[in-house]
Amino acid sequence: MGPGCAFLDYDNDGWMDIYLVNSGPSDLWTPSKPVRNALYRNNRDGTFSDVTDKAGVGGGSFGMGVAVGDYNNDGYPDLLITGYGRTILYRNNGDGTFTDVAKSAGLPLSGWTTGAAWFDYDNDGKLDLFIASYVAYGTGERQSCGNNRLGRNFYCVPKLFPPTASFLFHNNGDGTFTEVGKTGEIGKTRGKALGVVATDINNDGLMDLFVANDTDPNYLFMNRGPDGKGGVRWEEVGLAAGVAFSSDGRARSGMGVDSADLDSDGWQDLFVSNIDQEKFSVYRNNHDETFTDTAFEHGVAQATRLLSGWGVKYFDFDNDGAVDLILANGHPDDMVESTAPGVQYRERMLLFRNQKGRLHHVDFAEAGPVFGRPLSARGLAAGDFMNDGRLDVLVGVNGGAPVLLRNVSGQGNHWIGLQLEGTHSNRDAIGSTITWQTGGRRRSIQKTGGGSYLSSHDPRVILGFGPAASADWVEVRWPGPSGKTERFTGLASGRYHRITERR
Fold first, then answer.
1. Which candidate in 187, 221, 278, 474 could, as Cys together with 181 as Cys, close a disulfide (CB 3.0–4.6 Å)?
2. Which residues lie closer than 8 Å to 28 by C-beta, 6 or more apart?
3. How far apart, in Å, are the Cα atoms of 232 and each of 105, 120, 187, 265, 269?
4. DSSP helix/strand/coil, 147
5. Local structure of residue 105 (DSSP, 8 states)
6. What is the number of other CB atoms lying within 10 angstroms of the CB of residue 62?
7. Per residue in 127-186, pLDDT tens?
8. How far, rounded to the nearest angstrom, does the alpha carbon of residue 7 sit from its chain's CA centroid?
């Protein structure tokens, strides 16, 4: 199921570091050798140094995913580690070390947690937290599957296990959290949740939640604002929105998710990856809280029919201003090749380029040799670890070394990078919308929370201009009830800029 991975700047030196999640000891596995997570510091020359022990972030549990966010607004990114049996919250001490504060913060979760998203659902300037819960898998719920005459057990499909309720934690502003999901729609709606993305799908200034469920219908939790009781009312509309089931009404094996304005119409579209034979979904936003699956129009359905998808990212890999797509794939069953002709355990990643609003598969001969290499890929994170304005990609591999892809595309295209810093809004500025114009053409990007599968991306935003030398202007609409907008001109191309919200 794992692992997840992350880009983050843990020491605030302006260079992206790397965090890798690993499995570890639990009630179902005792490693013969010590196993731990890993934090790698960026040496600023294309290499990294392992600083795990010094930082104190080795984990020591059966890890799944990682979500990065500055929950206490001190300017240093903190780490949430999900997993089987234990959830860890590493508070960044600001001196290169971390402290696990899960218990004192009110996050001592057991069970099996998977995806997570930091976001400010009530616009009070503090990051709240959604944590996805998978299935009930204690010692009493385990089963044996397959034909034991072969002397081996098979992979058990998730349908055999009970769904569970996910968690929504409100940030109290004093280093602690209160679980508020159980009193509303989120806690009452059980599923087998994996990927989650926080995004504003109806442009009302409130962050919603799209959750991928494995063999259960996907959920779209709409944020309806204050409930009159000091909280927020959530409404689950996945079925009505057209994102719960496949076009023929079947629940699929949702794993990775993402959200972006794919067609440049100012509305957030959605994506979800599934298992083989189910095809992945490219959901176009219809501007009325409904979506249309356009995967066939983009060629994504055809390209993914025999694949199982996990990590996913909508991103502009060549800095031409259009949103492209990358997918990390691999089947969960390592014996699938003996039972399903044409399906492989290790699968190739896929890259799609956006041309005039349509996604087109980029052959590995052009994308790079690694796209011709089968992997048991899981988590995927995007980040500019070379600070050259091109988003690189980090992939977590099940049972193997991670893969780090350096982006060398888009030569000749121009860009600027933005590091947003909220003051009234949350410091990470999650929920903000950046709009820019080059040569009379306007584009926008929303800074979402979560996304992909068990992974966390570079928090900075890169705006691609294509051949244009610079942007005519850049606007930042900060999150929050005021929706305050600031316009900037004269931002130099080819570098990063720190943009701080005016008080």
1. 187
2. 62, 84, 142
3. 21, 11, 13, 28, 24
4. coil
5. H
6. 23
7. 999 999 999 998 888 888 866 556 677 788 899 999 999 999 999 999 999 999 999 999
8. 11
